[in-house]
Write a structure and sequence with these properties.
The complex is a heterodimer. Chain A is mostly beta strands. Chain A has strands at residues 5-7, 10-14, 19-24, 29-37, 43-50, 55-58, 61-66, 71-76, 85-93, 102-104, 108-113. Chain A contains no helices and 11 strands. The chains are: A mainly beta, B mainly beta.
């Protein structure tokens, strides 16, 4: 079953604008991860935020995590046409114990218009 | 490192035929995952190996699906017999425990 649910399902912005995608989940987690998938390609790991962290940065990416609300957001600043892709959140659930498999959401399709 | 290597990239087969998908994980990664992606169901975890041992195969849809990991550098996912509803992109991913996954480029399977 889908654990993380991304919002919005699709987002279209102009180059240079910021893009914000949200993810909600249902269980207690070890960590939450964001991935990008270009059309016809595999997923690429972007960033991992642990359950005891509230914010993390990597280049133009900023991720927040609110475990009380069971939600996370991914902010891409100064977007570029090359950022056009699907973005997925994935949770490493505490209930999985030693079986550290990720559960992926349904993704947000981001389109950055030049 | 060449990353996670999957083969073939594309596979077209007739219903009833056996299909074998292959994966070479990144050296040193002790976890390997097989996922299936479709428009309708998104990314679904099929099976997960840790140190070559299958840990959770609850996502394997039917007995027609089987997966093996005979050693740390190779895994296979087999479908026998294949059916049209098995058409999807199958991804292999590997990771060190508790870290992000590295995905392969996937195998696009079409069963006609």
């Amino acid at each position: 079953s889908q654990q993380g649910e991304e919002d919005p399902q699709a987002l279209s912005i102009q180059e240079g604008e910021n893009a914000t995608m949200n993810c909600s989940y249902k269980t207690s987690i070890n960590n939450l991860q964001w991935y990008r998938q270009n059309s016809g390609r595999g997923l690429v790991h972007l960033i991992l935020i642990r359950s005891n962290e509230r914010e993390k940065h990597s280049g133009r990416l900023r991720v927040t995590l609110d475990t009380s609300k069971k939600s996370s957001s991914l902010l891409i600043t100064a977007s570029r046409a090359a950022d056009t892709a699907s973005y997925f959140c994935a949770t490493d659930d505490l209930s999985s114990g030693s079986a550290r498999q990720l559960t992926f959401g349904s993704g947000t399709q981001l389109t950055v218009l030049p | 490192d060449a990353g996670v290597i999957q083969s073939p990239r594309h596979e077209v087969t007739e219903m009833g035929q056996e299909v074998t998908l292959r994966c070479k994980p990144i050296s040193g990664h002790n976890s390997l995952f097989w996922y299936r992606q479709t428009m309708m169901r998104g990314l679904e975890l099929l099976i997960y190996f840790n140190n070559n041992v299958p840990i959770d195969d609850s996502g394997m849809p039917e007995d027609r699906f089987s997966a093996k990991m005979p050693n740390a550098s190779f895994s296979t996912l087999k479908i026998q017999p294949s059916e049209p509803r098995d058409s999807a992109v199958y991804f292999c991913a590997s990771s060190p425990t508790g870290h992000g996954y590295t995905f392969g480029s996937g195998t696009r399977l079409t069963v006609v």
